[in-house]
Amino acid sequence: MLSPQSLSEDDRRLVAAWAADCAERVLPLFEAESPDDSRPRDGITRARAFSRGELDAAGEIRRRFVAGRAAQSATSVAGKAAAWSAGQAAGVAHMGAHALGAAAYAAKAAELATPGQGDAEVLWQLQHMSRAVREALETLPLLGEDPSGPLGSGLLASGALGRTVRTLQAALRSTEQA
């Protein structure tokens, strides 16, 4: 049985484009430090291609960690967070919950680069979700409810990342009931 964090392939394709949008907004933070490392940009490009149906999930599952590994070449924590955001976006082909990881790392990168910008980034993320993306993300378990994926007790559950995921999920739940 699939994890409830997986989402259907159709839903993963929907949320992959949104996750790529989130990661791309902070990509310049990484590229300013590591202009010759194309792994995060390639991960975002692949997430978009997956969203359009041009790449299959199996192939992307094998490559999902490449973009995030680029964080090793960043010199600042903001640059590292930007690379991890791209890695999470690339991981959506494997598990839909990574879309929230891409958003959380993007907000963290924005906040680290410019204090106070993280909340504005989350607001942008919420405003740029289509109805279909919202509906897909609403089906994910709340952070910490299911241990079988990124929304379990790992990195996304604590600190700034956890706060961002909880904020996004609370906003999704409030629109669901409105």
Number of H- or I-type helical stretches: 9
Relative strand content: under 5%
* Helicity, as a percent range: 55-70%
Mean pLDDT: 92
Number of domains: 1
The H/E string reads: HHHHHHHHH
* Shape by Cα distribution: globular
Total strand segments: 0
Q: List segments where confidence is low: pLDDT < 50 over at least 5 consecutive residues.
A: none
Helix- and strand-based class? Answer: mainly alpha
Q: Radius of gyration in whole Å, from Cα? A: 15 Å
Distance between the termini: 32 Å
- Main sheet makeup: none
Please explain how this structure is put together.
The chain has 178 residues and is an all-alpha fold. Helices cover 66% and strands 0% of the residues. The protein has one domain. It has helices spanning 9-33, 39-51, 57-63, 66-69, 77-91, 98-113, 117-127, 131-138, 159-177. The longest helix has 25 residues, at 9-33. It is globular and about 40 Å long. The N and C termini lie far apart (32 Å).
